[in-house]
Design a protein that fits this description.
heterodimer; A: mainly alpha; MetI-like fold; 10 helices; 84% helix; elongated; B: alpha/beta; 2 domains; 6-stranded mixed sheet; 8 helices
């Protein structure tokens, strides 16, 4: 209820200021105008198609990043040599904002889908690697000893103890990784084009349609919130209740 | 001999003190179906010995054999019940109990039957679908005992399994453990620091000396056929063990608190209840 009132107040202030500001509509559109564009964009397909394109990209990039991250995390946890080498540079790599890779990606892959996918993937891989590593490392040795005395080893040991025991940390890793790749995707599309929400922002700018730009921003915020609040937080909650944490 | 421990030496590398000798020439033989307790001051290596038998640690020299087979790795013939229950929080009680059975390659029906049987034995058959966090400490420890028993191990290794529980729960579990032992005749190797617990449960108490850990004395616990012992007998045995341990405890305390400290003269742990006015 508080949230609804808060949003309503913001909406009213926005509508009023845009009307009395004297700025032309294309620079500071009113709320109603933005909603009209948003609605049209969804119905006519311009925004809807862009959403689909972006979601497809992030789905592919995110999945690759998670697989890579978990694999790297496993190798770092398992082999001291990998920990000393790859583990050492992962922190450095993680501190590079993924959009910084874009110039390289354009030269390597050209200005296309691959370049965008590349930065989406690389944006999430390192943070997932770090989460996975610490998840695996923090599996209580008690669980490992229990499993070993019952005769578990090899792949069975990984599957039935290491992975499930690190689920809470893997989940929070997923959540951060998603946030990283979502930001990378928007930046990549904004610069790289090829359809998607990011490109739509660029289109809106070049056509002087701030109502379209703001519509896309709203969509980005809504998708981000849904993924975080509905998907990831719920997953974490359900694991916490099952395990009896807090 | 069933479980035979021969010439075990074990040291750990520590950062400050260099090599720390934990176990010094341990020789011990245990017969099938025995219930043997190990008592000793903390840090005397009694848990380390249990880990060696379990195969979770490797000794420097010496060998451990179980019914003729040399112990090299952990295995389901020597299952451990740890101090903390160590149940997997992501599995239900039933799945926790069947975890090891599934590795044995039995049929699904057989696995479930065995698990339910053993859960009945520890009086938890109403909780098979609960998750560990929904159970109390005593119930969790019962599940972990069930999980170990269902494997039908040659030796049940118990590492201070009841020390984290409250007094009442512990008493109940003592009774249950003895019932289970009589029923299954499993060999039990029980590590504890609680002398009373050791005397009440086992047939033989191995007293450990410390720094490095050695076997100081092996005290047989007198038992009657029905298993009910007069209090005076258990108290006598308890005090005998306490006397042996006193010297060791003092050694540890002196190391921790300086040479002027004397446990003997301070009498903090003396149990006078055994006198019952006989000295008047």
């Amino acid at each position: 209820m508080r949230r609804i009132i808060f949003i309503a107040i913001i909406a009213v202030i926005w509508e009023v200021t845009s009307r009395i500001s004297g700025l032309p509509d294309f620079m500071f559109p009113s709320l109603t105008q933005v909603f009209a564009t948003l609605f049209n964009g969804l119905v006519e397909g311009q925004i809807a198609v862009a959403i689909l394109t972006s979601m497809k990209r992030i789905a592919i990039g995110f999945v690759i990043a998670i697989l890579l991250g978990v694999t790297f995390g496993y190798l770092i946890w398992r082999y001291k040599l990998v920990e000393d080498t790859l583990g050492f540079i992962v922190t450095a790599l993680q501190s590079i904002p993924s959009i910084v890779w874009f110039p390289l990606a354009i030269i390597w892959f050209g200005l296309n889908d691959f370049a965008i996918l590349f930065i989406v993937t690389i944006g999430a891989t390192w943070t997932m690697t770090i989460s996975a590593t610490s998840g695996f490392k923090n599996v209580p040795s008690l669980y490992q000893q229990v499993a070993k005395t019952f005769g578990s080893s090899g792949f069975h040991f990984i599957k039935t103890v290491i992975i499930p025991a690190s689920i809470p940390q893997l989940l929070s890793g997923l959540r951060i990784a998603w946030a990283f790749s979502w930001r990378a995707l928007m930046a990549g599309e904004l610069l790289g084009g090829g359809g998607g929400l990011g490109e739509l922002l660029e289109t809106g700018r070049s056509l002087g349609q701030m109502d379209l730009v703001i519509s896309v921003m709203i969509i980005i915020a809504v998708i981000g919130t849904i993924m975080d609040r509905v998907v990831f937080i719920r997953l974490e909650k359900s694991v916490q209740t099952k395990w009896g944490i807090s | 001999m069933y479980l035979s421990i021969e010439g075990i030496h074990k040291s750990f590398n520590t950062k400050n003190k260099g090599k720390l000798k934990v176990l010094d020439n341990i020789n011990l033989d245990i017969e099938q179906g025995d219930f043997v307790s190990i008592v000793g001051p903390s840090g005397c290596g009694k848990s380390t010995l249990l880990y060696l038998i379990a195969g979770l640690e490797k000794s420097d020299t010496g060998s451990i054999t179980v019914s003729g087979k040399k112990v090299k790795n952990p295995g389901p013939d020597r299952v451990v019940v740890f101090q903390e229950d160590g149940l997997f929080p992501w599995l239900t009680v039933l799945d926790n109990v069947t975890y090891g059975l599934k590795l044995k390659g039995l049929s699904k029906k057989e696995i479930k039957e065995k698990a339910i049987d053993v859960l009945k034995m520890v009086h938890l058959s109403n909780y098979i679908d609960s998750y560990p966090h929904q159970l109390s400490g005593g119930m969790k420890q019962r599940v972990s005992i069930a999980r170990a028993l269902v494997m039908e191990p040659d030796i049940l290794l118990m590492d201070e399994p009841f020390s984290a529980l409250d007094e009442q729960t512990r008493m109940v579990l003592h009774k249950e453990l003895l019932e289970i032992w009589r029923k299954t005749k499993v060999t039990i190797f029980f590590v504890t620091h609680n002398i009373r617990e050791a005397v009440q449960l086992s047939e033989k108490v191995v007293v450990f000396a410390t720094r490095p850990g050695r076997i100081k004395e092996i005290i047989p616990v007198p038992s009657t056929k029905d298993g009910i012992m007069p209090d005076s007998v258990t108290l006598y045995t308890e005090q005998k063990i306490l006397k042996i341990l006193q010297e060791e405890i003092e050694k540890v305390l002196k190391e921790e608190m300086g040479d002027d400290y004397s446990f003997e003269t301070n009498h903090i742990h003396r149990d006078h209840s055994g006198d019952l006015g006989s000295n008047i």
